[in-house]
Design a protein that fits this description.
Layout: E1 2-11, H1 15-27, E2 34-37, E3 54-55, H2 66-76, H3 83-101, E4 128-129, H4 136-150, E5 154-157, E6 160-167, E7 173-180, E8 185-196, H5 217-225, E9 229-230, E10 235-242, H6 255-259, E11 263-265, H7 285-298, E12 304-307, H8 313-319, H9 321-329, E13 339-348, E14 351-353, E15 365-367, E16 372-373, H10 385-401, H11 414-421, H12 434-448, H13 455-470, H14 481-502, E17 523-527, E18 535-538
Parallel strand pairs: 1-2, 1-8, 2-5, 8-15, 14-16
Antiparallel strand pairs: 3-4, 6-7, 7-8, 9-14, 9-17, 10-13, 11-12, 12-13, 17-18
The structure holds flavin-adenine dinucleotide and succinic acid (SIN).
Length: 540
């Protein structure tokens, strides 16, 4: 076992993790340095795949206002967004996005050199910045990776998985145990502050827009440490992922394509969104997803289509070069043919409960980005608010930590010693087929904890998940990264299913066929290890 210590450890190198690392080095001199760990390569994560863009209520867009953005966010959030969080994130967007531009991130501009703003569903105005047409995430991710690699104050560990947080007898976080999947070695890393920036949970579902690493690790690390988790039942299913044969990781067809005028049609070319909402294709995401789901069900279809014929050829090719390229590889010319689409798991609205500085219910542990629950998204995230939340919360946490004690802890107690010993024990030599096990769980979650849920399906899923858990490796130590991921997926699936079973109403992205009504007053659900009931918290 190796040992090391840092002032701050950041777990996860998406946009939230990398931006927080950069901001921390600017704010303060770290006596014990900053460590950024990533279970795959630097910059791998959901961030890299973001297409549509990032919300910014910017001084360059005088027709926009925070009031308008706040209203749109609250409306999409279906009564479960926290007003303070929405206000703070919206009002910080101008300063933070200009700061982000300072890292060499070039958002798209028109021929006059002015920033371009696009429209996405449920926004009442064009306010979404994009880069590289539809490659916003990749452009920001690449820009931040470059800055991180050039910054001598940030140590980067790639191929390194955080497997357990070190929690002292007093219940404070003192670092993490990490596993290097290349060398097969473990390292105990002590830190004054530990930041979870581990992203989402899309891989729990058969069809998802999320890449391989989105296995809910951060939720499970926080849950096992005793942190409070909030609103886990709210999983966003994006309406339009590319529905072609082969591979269940679905390529996203950005909402911005609908923002530019594309229409949803069925197999016979019939438009159908006017039946479901007066904003048609630009209705909130949960509504469009359920509309497509309902059309597919009623008409026995496995997909619908996105008709782009109203967008002129040069606009579509200039605005959506990545989408055009991927579709071309799949034999679809998007300037001529409709794009086959169907919904896929996309985003986790709930997460580790935090305040606006990223503080969780555990001292020394913070969460930012998709793994966190700040209260911004409520029951349904407004398009392009996620990247904004990543950067604003990374920025505010770095500011908060500049006033904190940054010396890594020295005294390690018996509780932590015991945790470490768990990883020094031998494991039995049972071999698990994790690919098959993951696929079985993903199918179960898609069928029973997906777009439409019911008591019967959720109860069946919970029982099966508990059975799968009982059949899996019992030692703390697993054989490899895949086993750790599968174990995290099982735990996260159980938590999400439990939360979904307990919410006996439909709200935002959580739709119960047996409880279709929305209760008058929204309440957050809270889950914490050792507490047998899901608790509810009144909105502020
Ligand atoms: P991620 O970028 O997912 O990064 C998580 C990091 O944590 C990764 O580096 C991962 O390897 C690491 N990690 C995870 N577990 C561990 C562990 N146990 N140990 C070590 N490391 C770990 N949002 C928008 O606002 N606008 C958009 O246009 C948009 N488009 C999207 C398109 C797609 C296809 C997808 C999938 C999402 C999109 N989103 C969009 C959502 C947005 O991209 C994500 O919510 C956001 O990027 C999450 O960033 P993050 O830094 O929190 O996590
Ligand atoms: C998209 O481009 O449709 C995704 C935007 C988002 O998830 O916010």
């Amino acid at each position: 076992m190796k040992y090391s210590k840092y002032s701050v450890i950041i777990i996860g190198s998406g946009i939230a993790g990398m931006y927080s690392a950069l901001k921390l080095t600017e704010h303060t001199n770290m006596p014990d340095g900053i460590l950024l760990i990533s279970k795959y390569k630097l910059g791998d994560g959901n961030s890299k795949y973001a297409q549509g863009g990032i919300v910014g209520v910017l001084r360059e867009n005088p027709t926009d206002s925070c009031v308008s953005h706040i209203n749109d966010t609250l409306k999409a959030g279906a009564g479960l967004s926290e007003i303070n969080a929405v206000k703070f994130i919206s009002e910080s967007s101008d300063e933070v996005i200009h700061d982000l531009m300072g890292y060499g991130i070039d958002f798209d501009k028109n021929s006059k050199g002015e920033l371009c703003f696009t429209l996405e569903a449920a926004h009442s105005i064009r306010r979404i910045l994009h880069a590289g047409g539809d490659a916003t995430g990749r452009k920001i991710d690449e820009g931040l990776c470059k800055c991180v690699l050039e910054n001598e104050d940030i140590t980067v560990y790639e191929d390194t998985l955080a497997v357990e947080l070190l929690i002292s007898k007093e219940g404070e976080c003192k670092g993490v145990i990490a596993y290097n999947s290349i060398t097969d070695e473990y390292e105990v890393i002590y830190s004054a502050h530990t930041i979870l920036a581990t992203g989402g949970t899309g891989q729990l579902y058969k069809y998802t827009t999320n890449p391989a690493g989105a296995t809910g690790d951060g939720l499970v690390l926080a849950y096992n440490a005793g942190a409070e988790l909030r609103d886990l039942e709210f999983i966003q299913f994006h309406p339009t992922s590319l529905a072609v044969e082969g591979g269940e990781n679905r390529f996203l067809i950005s909402e911005a394509v609908r923002g530019e005028g594309a229409k949803l049609i069925d197999k016979s070319g019939q438009e159908f969104m006017s039946k479901y909402h007066d904003k048609r294709e630009l209705a909130p995401r949960d509504i469009v997803t359920r509309a497509i789901n309902s059309e597919m069900h009623l008409k026995h279809l496995d997909k619908v289509y996105l008709n782009t014929s109203s967008i002129d050829r040069s606009t579509i090719l200039n605005r959506f070069p990545t989408i055009a390229g991927v579709c071309r590889k799949n034999g679809i010319d998007i300037t001529k043919s409709p794009i086959p689409v169907s919904p896929a798991a996309h985003y986790s609205m709930g997460g580790v409960k935090t305040d606006l500085n990223g503080c969780t219910s555990i001292k020394g542990l913070y969460a930012i980005g998709e793994v966190s629950s700040t209260g911004l998204h409520g029951a349904n995230r407004l398009a392009s608010n996620s990247l904004l939340e990543c950067v604003v919360c990374a920025w505010s946490l770095a500011d908060y930590l500049s006033f904190a004690n940054l010396v890594a802890p020295k005294m390690i107690d018996g509780t932590i010693k015991e945790t470490i010993e768990g990883y020094e024990q031998n494991i039995d030599d049972v071999i698990y087929n994790t690919d098959k096990l993951k696929a079985e769980l993903q199918q179960l979650m898609w069928d029973n904890v997906g777009i439409i849920r019911s008591e019967e399906g959720l109860t069946e899923a919970l029982k099966k998940i508990q059975f799968l858990k009982s059949m899996f490796r019992k030692t703390k130590r697993c054989l490899n990264m895949d086993e750790y991921e599968y174990r995290n997926m099982l735990e996260a699936a159980e938590l999400i299913t439990t939360a979904a079973l307990n919410r006996r109403e439909s709200r935002g992205a959580h739709y119960r066929s047996d409880y279709p009504q929305t209760e008058e007053h929204g309440e957050h659900s809270l889950i914490k290890k050792g507490e047998t009931q899901v608790a509810y918290q009144i909105l502020h």
